[in-house]
Amino acid sequence: MTASLFALVDCNNFYASCERLFRPDLQDKPIVVLSNNDGCIVARSLEAKQLGIKMAVPFYQVMEMIRAHNVAVFSSNYALYADISNRVMTTLEQMVPRVEVYSIDEAFLDLSRLDKCQDINQLATDIRQRIQQWIGISVCVGIGPSKTLAKLANYAAKQYPATQGVVDLRDKERQRRLMALTPIDEIWGIGRKIAQRLKLMGIHTALQLADTPPTLIRDNFSIMVERTVYELNGIACDDIQQVVATKQQIVSSRSFGERITQFTAMQQAINDYTCRACEKLRAEGQLARTLSVFIRTSYFTELQPKCSQVLTGNLAYPSDDTRDFIALAQRLLSRLWRDGYAYAKAGVMLGDFYAPGVFQLGLFDEVKPQPKSKELMKLLDCVNHSGKAKIQFAGQGLNTDWGMKRGQLSPRYTTQWTQLPTVK
What we know:
Layout: E1 6-11, H1 14-21, E2 31-34, E3 41-44, H2 46-50, H3 63-68, E4 72-75, H4 78-95, E5 99-103, E6 106-110, H5 120-134, E7 139-144, H6 147-159, E8 166-168, H7 172-181, H8 192-200, H9 206-210, H10 214-220, H11 223-232, E9 250-260, H12 263-283, E10 287-297, E11 308-319, H13 322-336, E12 343-354, H14 373-385
Parallel strand pairs: 2-4, 7-8
Antiparallel strand pairs: 1-6, 1-7, 2-3, 5-6, 9-12, 10-11, 10-12
Helix pairs in contact: 10-11, 12-13
């Protein structure tokens, strides 16, 4: 049986690095990227971290520091980040046969099936060099006999510059030396609350957790934490997942750039979120029967009345037709809406999924699916994804006052013809 061997490739300061790709004037300068509605810091360049700017801190709290140090500020440019991420993952797939895209800036590689004569460390170095040369993004590579050890190796590659971005944890003694230096909070899968409970048991480092009997961990925590103990000892409990698991629900929601006080504006927002959710549903190849709509005010506004409501409804049959769900969403919203509130967020959630062809209507059911629904939705998605035009439903996105506030948004350099960089 072939021994397991994994690598984790993680892009360094990914959002900030994407913003710097087309701005050479920002080389070696501090950069921060803001969350939806320009609320909090969600990404920082190394230079911004060295200034002491913390992750998730509200933007207004660090504005003076940002001005004082001339920090470049960007709104989240999701179109740019997704495209650069796709280029990174495609490059990895050209170099290794099995790749699991773990997040927008991380991927696990299966190295166990490579030729035994291949130099693994040289492969890791080649990966770093190719992604840097072809795409312009810096990555670190961690190697280990389990995913958790590969993640730990990647953590070390980022922490210690002397590693030159590659750490190989195949050696047992090297594993233990690194685990002895690693706080329990830095272990993949160990959240803040679990870390606090482990510390009460006298477990403060990764090595102490690895040396704890798995049965004791299972009795006090869960099987997932027990699996972490096995993985820290080099026993792989999870393989590469090349097929993405089917979602059990699809959520489309967003905080508003400006508070919504008019029913018409909320209708447009809910219509837009419903359209987005249905596009995701069709991309999954699924049908749904349940839709939930929620609206709420801000938790942090002291002088205004607060309201948080959700309502769920069902279709007579599973569908992926946007028209069916818009009609249901508007019926639910009409029952939820209350005048006199300044709403800060809204969204929809699809649930109760079916595979096509599984659900059958009764012989005497009066409600039938809309004619040629499949053909119409396919055409709709084809046009909207072509980049040439966009078809919208009536009442969808006509008023953009409720849209996200992104005052520092950079151009979509790689996905919009009109925003290509100009060479002078």
